[in-house]
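Bench notes, afternoon.
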Amino acid sequence: MIAVVALAAAVGAAWWLQRPAPSKAADAPSGQSAPGSGAAAPARGASGAGGAGGGAVTVEAVPVHSRLLVEDVEAVGSLRSRQGVMLRAEVGGRVAEIGFRDGQRVRKGQLLVQLDDRLQRAQLQQALAELSIAGANHRRNVELVGRGFISQRGVDESAAALEVAKAKTELARATAARLRVLAPFDGVTGLRNISVGDYLKEGADIVNLEDMNAVYVDYRLPERLQTQVRRGQVARVQVEALPDRVFAASVLAVDPLIDANGRSLNVRGCIDNRLLQLRPGMFARVVTQLGDDRQALMIPEEAVVSQGGRVSVIRLVKAEGQDGKPAWSTQRVDVTTGRRSAGQVEIMHGLAEGERVVTAGQQRIQRDGTPVRVAAPPGAEGAAVAASGSAAARPKASGTEVADAPREPTSAASVTGRGAKRAAGLPWAEVPPGPSPCTAVAVR
C-alpha cells in the first residue's frame, strides 16, 4: 500500500513539473500586445523594408581610353628559294664527267654532268653522213629533171629522202643531248649524290639546284583579313638563325583560294637575298603591315555584351544619390566594334573617350537607370599600395591600370604582338646596291 502511494506521488510531481506555462499574450486584452512583442514586430518590418527596397548593385568599370593602334598582323611561315629543282637523269647511262663542285654557283646552260655518249655520237655521225648523201642525190635529181632525163617523181622521192635524213640527224642530236645535264638557271648547287663511273638509272637524283638571289616566305593569315592584304605591302621577317636583324619582304601574291581546312589565306612575300644570308626551309616570323597607324578608342572585351544580334555596352551615367552625394546609374548603349587586340576591342561608334563602361556585373543589371556602386577590380588595392611606396618598385598589373594605361597586346595575331615589337626594334638587314630581284620577279 505504501508503494502504491509513493508511485502516485511521483507521477503527480512529474506532471506538475512538465505542465506548459500560461500564455501572457492570451491573458492580455485584445488590441494589446505582450511585453517585448512590439519590439520584435518593428524589427521584422524594418528587415522586410530593406529587402524590398534593395541597394546599389556592385559592378566593376573602366574608362574608355585612346591608344595608338598599329595596323600589323603577325604570323609564322617558311622560306623557300625563288627557283629550286632536283636535277635527274633523263636516260640511263654511266657518268663520264662532273662539271661542278658541291655548293658552287653555276650559270644557266653550264654543263653539270656528262654521261657516256660514245654510242650516241656514232649514231649522230651516221645520220650526218646519210644527210649528206640525201642532199647530194636531191641536187643531182633537180639538175636531171631540168634536162628531161628523169621524171618529176624522182625529184619528189629525193626531196622526201632528204627530209627523212634531216629528221634522223635531229633525232641523233637530241638523243646525244639527253646525256648532258645542264643548269636550267643561275643558282647554287647542293650536295651531289653521284661520282664519276656511277651508272645512273633513268630518273635518278643527281643534285639539287637553288636560285637564292631572292627567297620567298610563305605564310597564312586569317580569312577575315582577305580584304586588307594586298600585293606590294611591306612585311618584316625575322629568323631564329639571325636574331639580330630584320629582313624586309614585299607581298608578292595572295592565293585567290581560301584553304578550306584551316579557313586561312595563303600569302607569299619576296626577300632580297643577294648576300645569301637566308636559306630555303628556314622558320620565319612575319609581321605584315596592313595599313597606317592610327588612334583608336579601346575597351576590355568583357565589357561588350552580344545578345540577339545586338552588340552593346553598359555605360555609367552620373546621378544623385538618396543622400545628395554623387552616384552612378546605368545606360545600355549600342556600339560598333573594330579590331581586337589581346583582350582589348576597338570601339568605332557609340562611346567617347573618358566614359566608363561596366566590365563585371552586367548580369545583375536588368534595366537602364539601375543605381550601381563601382568596386575596385581585384588587385587594385595592392597596386595602389605598391605605387605609393618606393618609386623604384613596379606596381603589378591590375584592372585599374588596364583602364588608365592599357598593356601591350601579347597574342600571336595581335595588333602589336611580342614578335612584332621585337622585330620593330631591330635593324634592317643589309641589302646590296642595284635593282632588287624581287622587283624583277614582280615584273615578270
